Amino acid sequence: MKPTMRGVMLCAVMVSLANGGESGKIDYPQELSAEKQQTLEWFSESRFGMFIHWGLYSVPAGEYHGKKVDGIGEWIMKRGNIPTEEYEQFAEQFDPVKFDADAWVTLAKDAGMKYMLITTKHHDGFCLWDSPTTDYDVVDRTPDGQDVIKALSKACKKHDIQLCLYYSVLDWHHPDVSYRNRDAKQDFNRYVQTYMKPQLKELLGGEYGMIPMIWFDGFWEEWWKPEMGKEIYDYIKEISPSTIVNDRISSDFPRTIIGDYVTPEQNIPSVPTSNIKVGDFWETVLTMNNTWGYRKDDNSWKSDRELIRTLIEVASRGGNLTLNIGPKADGTIPQPSVDGLNAMGRWLKVNGEAVYGTSHSPIGMMPWGRLTTKGDDKVFLHIFEWPRDRFNMRLEQMSGRKIKRIYLLEQPEKSLEFVRSGMEVRFAVPQPCPDPIATVIAIEFETKRKNK
Ligand code: H79
């Protein structure tokens, strides 16, 4: 599916991740099944979801033996060079007495999110579900012993949120692939056949409900070969035909794209919006501060304005935003994350129509804000710079059709008067600015099929 196009886009935005294997491209023409098409449609309409990084790294929270370990919190095992036996002991302190799956899901729902994406197993190899393939999991090793994925799958079902799963290919704990014991006894293929595949079956086979998307990460180690990526992609098609798979399953990423959607990290694709072809699905994953897994010293929280405008930016380019929280080991969520999400939820309650199920801007970015469209009869203007009196805009490339109505999403019953001359439309806006973060104006056109 347009691998060249995707390759170009990713090279532009993900240079930091560009470290594929040495092997050549594998030709992998993709025919998307009807089931996958349907999931991709759901994915694209949803626009906004929650990422959750939770695991043993939440215990040290950025500090080891009283000393800071720099970098993203979930990498502390490697960056802090913590011996495996010592790292394993964090499990005894992973005691989420305040974990409330319903509360997490409700937080996502109130923020206007449609899905939740959680780390079932991050690079450290610790599993958040009761896996029969290992005892290095939350049920077998922690005091509370609760299957986190099961609890979340129940809560998600109850609140109509889709549960999606993150899975790290690389594993610092598994003896067959861990960088800690590179020796002749290591058997990469044994890990794939007897560990990774059974685990994916446990996760996607039905126990946790239908999982619409799986999000692989940790594709860059030498031992992970393009054939293995293809094998896993095909395997998922077999065990869960509706589940869409992200691009990072390919070890040659981003040069070879296997997968159904593209996942830029900490970055919104910066190519002109007109270069993103409709039908290419992507999702920007983003932190609310500077870490994925909880770090007690990271207080660089994004403002409400930055969060809301980022969501608009992403939607105006036709993508999804999956925004991360890093809960603490006791199951609580840092308050600044909760506050930011609530602010987004309040904005979406008024303006959600201009985000969910929309398409990218027909005219790129404007100095005053961003645009989204819905169907062929609605354009939404997300205004960042509120005009002092009148708003002038050229409608070229949008619609030559008659304007039916112009109104603010926060006051939909009140039409704004407008004057149209040729391709230009002019209208007065109320003062003061209703929402300095972003006020949305809807322009509704006459539909083509009008029987009058
Ligand atoms: O889970 C979060 C991060 O832990 C994970 N992805 C998000 C969602 C992530 N880990 N690393 N990165 C993202 C950045 C990757 C950096 C890399 Fe490299 C540069 C991979 C290959 C080259 C660092 C240097 C790791 C290997 C060499």
From TrEMBL:
EC class: hydrolase
Cellular component GO terms held in the UniProt record: lysosome
Function: Alpha-L-fucosidase is responsible for hydrolyzing the alpha-1,6-linked fucose joined to the reducing-end N-acetylglucosamine of the carbohydrate moieties of glycoproteins.
Family: Belongs to the glycosyl hydrolase 29 family.
Glycoside hydrolase family 29 N-terminal domain segment(s): 32-353
SMART domains named in the record: Alpha_L_fucos (SM00812)
Keywords per UniProt: Glycosidase, Hydrolase, Signal
One biological process term in Gene Ontology: fucose metabolic process
Protein's name according to its UniProt entry: alpha-L-fucosidase
Gene3D superfamilies assigned: Glycosidases, Golgi alpha-mannosidase II
Pfam families for the chain: Alpha_L_fucos (PF01120)
E.C. no: 3.2.1.51
Family annotation (InterPro entries): FUC_metazoa-typ, GH, Glyco_hydro_29, Glyco_hydro_29_N, Glyco_hydro_b
Organism superkingdom: Bacteria
Gene Ontology terms for molecular function: alpha-L-fucosidase activity
